[in-house]
Amino acid sequence: MTRFKSARALLALFGLVAAMAAAQAQGAARLPNVTILATGGTIAGSGATSTTTVGYTAATVGVEALIKAVPELQKVAHVSGEQVFQIASENMGNDNWLALAKRINVLLAKPEVDGIVITHGTDTIEETAYFLNLVVKSRKPVVVVGAMRPSTAISADGPINLYNAVITAGSQEAVGKGVLVVMNDQINAAREVTKTNTTTTDTFKSPELGMLGYIVDNQPHFYRASTRKHTSDTEFDISKLDALPQVDIAYAYANVGPTVVNALVGAGARGLVHAGVGDGSLPAKVRPALSAAREKGVIVVRASRVGQGVLARNGEANDDQLDFVVADTLNPQKARILLMLALTKTNSTREIQRMFYTY
Ligand code: ASP
Predict the structure, then answer these.
(1) CA distances from 235 to 30, 110, 161 (A)
(2) Taking Cα atoms as reference points, which of 120, 129, 114, 135 lies closest to residue 181?
(3) N or C: lower Cβ tally within 10 Å for the chain?
(4) Which residues pair with 325 in a beta bridge?
(5) Euclidean distance between the first and final Cα of the chain, in Å?
(6) CB 282 within 8 A of CB 250
């Protein structure tokens, strides 16, 4: 009887081991499902000749052609494509962002979708990536990718960038890392990445704070993560929004006057980002205009045109007294995005300052 029982137990154990091995083999063979949302840009651009790398037309090639141009994608993921827009990214607007984010949230809520890639023009890629980083409600990977050379150029960078983006979007390593920008074999976080060169393929950097990792040998390798809250951990919900509050940027320079600030307030801005010189200093001719804007209820955020470093609160201006907010390390174009979303929740400068130190 005992012998019979132990034989049965042994058989059950063999069965379990075999089932585990089969499941493991199946898991290893299962390719992730990655949806590519195409929005246009140079990655979908075409030039007159193979040596045309400037003066080409952005946003001419459709998503199916982009996918077809990289047959290697089929080996690393089940890819499907959707043409969401077909625009150059200098024309990206708040409406586009809301539509894109809503579509991503619908797709990522489906259990069968493992990750999303967004093909995008590079001029505003960092803005779209940061917007999505604040409003996508999922820990699944979302990767934004572009190209500096049109699809028709010699050594076009689009195909390899797209391939690397799909690998990253289908990877476990990218889960929970926030929205990523993958270009030039490098992975950058949406919050920190910025375009640093007008034309070269190594343009995307995260100045001083550093990139997150590399794509090497068909795999993403992460070395760090952004510490700020993102995606499913933010308080922003765009599901019921069909517009965003008007927030504009006023750029500072030697000899700047109050004209732009006054014009923007007159045009109905609810928020203003002062892209100040240095540590966001307030020129004597601009300060009264910004202060008057604040008195009218406009939220003023001091940022810097420098592109690196912390904007120190109560440093170059008495923010407590002026009731201004500081942008921390966000560049002016990203400060604008956070301020727009902040204004969908509150008008309190104390709360908005908290958000700038949180995201
Ligand atoms: N102007 C183009 C765009 O942003 C540039 C690019 O994609 O590289 O759409």
Answers:
(1) 34, 22, 32
(2) 129
(3) N
(4) 301
(5) 66
(6) no
Check 35, 39, 42, 231 and give the catalytic one: 42
Q: Which of 84, 122, 194, 198 to mutate to test the pocket of ligand 1 (most atoms within 8 A of CB)?
A: 122
Active site residue 42: yes
- Please, which pLDDT band fits residue 14 given cuts at 50, 70 and 90? low
Q: Which domains does the chain have, with CATH numbers?
A: 31-233 (3.40.50.1170), 247-358 (3.40.50.40)
Q: How many angstroms separate the CA atoms of 311 and 79, rounded?
A: 42
Q: How far is residue 357's CA from residue 359's CA, in Å, rounded to a whole number?
A: 6
d(CA 247, CA 272): 6
- Amino acid 6: pLDDT: 57
Question: Ligand 1 centroid vs 147 CA: distance in angstroms?
Answer: 8
Of 130, 259, 115, 257, residue with least CA distance to 176:
115
| 218-230 pLDDT, tens digit each | 999 999 999 999 9
Identify the residue whose C-alpha is closest to ligand 1 atom 3: 121
Is residue 119 within 8 Å of 128, Cβ to Cβ? Answer: no
User: Among 199, 211, 51, 181, which Cα is nearest to 120's?
Assistant: 181
Angle of helix 349-358 relative to helix 332-343, nearest 10 degrees, comes to 130
15-29, 168-182, 269-283, 311-325: which range is least confident on average? 15-29
**How far is Cα of residue 30 from the mean position of the Cα atoms in its chain?**
28
What average pLDDT does the structure give for the chain?
94
